[in-house]
Fold this protein.
Amino acid sequence: MTKRALVTGITGQDGSYLADFLLEKGYEVHGTVRRSSVEKFERIQHIRDRVTLHQMDLLDQLSIITVLEDVEPWEVYNLAAQSFVPTSWNQPLLTGEFTALGVTRMLDGLRTVNPDIRFYQASSSEMFGKVRRTPQDEETPFYPRSPYGVAKVYGHFITVNYRESYDLFAVSGILFNHESPRRGLEFVTRKITDAVARIKLKQQKVLRLGNLDACRDWGFAGDYVDAMWRMLQLEEPEDFVIGTGVMHSVRDVCRVAFEHVGLDWEAYVMEDPAFLRPAEVEELCADASKAKRLLDWEPVVSFEELVRMMVDADLERHSG
Ligand code: NAP
Ligand code: G4F
């Protein structure tokens, strides 16, 4: 029998890779989109005729229930959120509504319509924030450093709570930063690779960045959606940390990206306080040994391969 999945946030980076992955697995794929005066479906343009889209907003309970009733999914992947950390200081309440309370709306909808639906919640390494220990695993305490991180902690624990209260198959994937050529242009990796391409093509002169010393555990989004799917295939629901276990600085991203086009990053990058955050997460690094053990999951694409893949994609885009 064909399995049916519903992906909230299908127009986002992860939603588009997950849709590709599930179609490849033979799923019937449904996705939710927000009403907008212009359609922003670039990331799913190549599969537009193979997925069914439904209008839904995380702020609107009726729209959630209606979609769940119409689609009758086996699996729900809740990827929709306000996902950009700096915006969460400018719009803390909206971030809380989308990224925190939106999860409760999804879980309540699912509980009402069909409690047998399997549910994946997109939790984040931002929850570790001011890290209590390194590397971080499923037992590491949370200390979020932004309204976004705080909202994700709520989303994480409400998922745990509904699992324990109502016996739902609801899991959280605590994913570390993952990037791709489909990453939003405001996130640091893509901001860098896009600028490198434009500088190489003489369309831009300098690149202004914030904290060059911040370290992240960066992986490839295409590898990480596989882990999401594996979590929903388990016998029992459990939460997992997903990452590479290797940490690099923003400076390293610059070096690898500029080197790939034969340029010296120090000649083009300028530090600009406008991009510093009110509270910074200095470093994040995953211990994903539980995922390797129970999901048989490991990342495939290395940091260097990822950065070069993104630079190549941006070069091609800007050359056209
Ligand atoms: P993204 O590219 O920003 O995509 C977010 C998606 O959510 C978009 O499709 C967006 O729709 C949708 N959305 C936003 N607000 C909504 C609302 N009120 N109602 C319905 N849909 C809404 O994010 P991503 O990188 O794919 O990340 C996917 C999820 O994983 C997010 O929850 C993010 O917080 C989490 N996460 C990401 C990472 C990472 O490194 N990428 C790591 C850990 C966790 P529009 O197209 O209409 O804006
Ligand atoms: O690329 P970023 O904006 O990602 P951030 O804040 O780590 O959040 C991403 O990963 C989370 C998982 O840990 C997700 F939950 C979240 O949704 C999102 O996908 O920034 C990475 C680092 C930060 O330390 C930031 O201060 O890069 C530093 N940075 C330095 N200059 C910059 C810049 N970040 C951005 N966006 N722009 C800069 O110019």
Q: What stands out?
A: The pocket of G4F (ligand 2) is lined by residues 83, 85, 124-126, 176-177, 186-188, 191, 209-211, 214, 216, 250, 275, 277, 280-281, 284 (CB under 6 Å). Residues 4-178+219-242 form a domain with the Rossmann fold fold (CATH 3.40.50.720).
